[in-house]
Amino acid sequence: MAFGRWGEVLVVAVVGISAVASINSMIIVCARTTYAAARDMPALALLAHWHPTRETPARTVLAVGGVSLALTLLAALTGNGFGAMVDYMTPVYWLFIAGGMAASIRLRLRHPDVDRPLKTPLFPLFPASFLLLSFYMLWSAFQHLGWGAVFGAVILGAGFVLDALLRAKQLP
Fold first, then answer.
1. Which of 84, 94, 93 is nearest to 145 (CA)?
2. Rounded distance, CA 84 to CA 94, Å?
3. Which residues of 74-103 are buried (b: 16+ CB within 10 A; e: fewer)?
4. Domain coordinates of the chain in residue numbers?
5. What are phi and psi of 22, to 5 degrees?
6. Average pLDDT, the chain
7. Element (H or E) spanning 8, and its range?
8. pLDDT tens-digit map of 91-120
9. What are the tens digits of pLDDT across the range 52-83?
10. Could you give the count of Cα atoms lying within 13 Å of 103 in the half-sphere of its Cβ?
11. Can you tell me the distance from the alpha carbon of 133 to that of 26, in angstroms, rounded to the nearest whole number?
């Protein structure tokens, strides 16, 4: 309201462009990472197909689209679709942030002699405090978000179990 009609149009345009860019990047990135994982695991070889004329991982695009559709339908059943997706994704997000911070700390401690173009201020204090904050946010998600957060964690846990089973099956 402070900037009138032009401000309103600008905000709507920025949000629209951001949403389309985000959806586009998620489709491309998610399908390609799923394709790369499937290529590395013989049990998922059916998904590891690169379409020769489209030059895309067509099967993983369909698989990611199917999972996204299932989540969208599930969210629609809750009556608060956006809230349900936030609840579902929040613990997953904070767990991956924590994992990234833990990996960063471990990498720098195990290989201190590697030249790194980016310096971490106050290492390891800064990443360790961020790691602890991530665990606090993860705990808070379970405290405040309810069943959506539990559902997200269960799905993630099932993925870890499935990954372990598939990797064990590959061992000679």
1. 84
2. 16
3. ebeeeeeeeebbbbbbbbbbbbebbeebee
4. 1-78, 79-172
5. -65, -45
6. 87
7. helix 4-40
8. 888 998 999 999 999 999 999 999 888 888
9. 998 889 999 899 888 888 888 888 888 787 78
10. 6
11. 26
**CA 99, CA 160: separation in Å to the nearest integer?**
13
Six token digits for residue 36: 């790369």
3-state secondary structure of 1: coil
- The count of other CB atoms within 10 Å of the CB of residue 61 is 19
Res. 172 pLDDT band, cuts 50 70 90: low
Token pair of 32 as six digits: 């390609």
Please report the pLDDT score of residue 23 as a whole number: 74
Token pair recorded at residue 37: 């994982």
Cα distance between residue 159 and residue 67, in whole Å? 13
Taking each helix axis from N to C end, the angle separating 4-40 and 58-78, rounded to the nearest 10 degrees, works out to 120
Give the phi and the psi of residue 51 in degrees, each rounded to 5.
-70, 120
Q: What DSSP letter does each residue of 47-58 carry, written as one string? A: G---BTTTTB-H
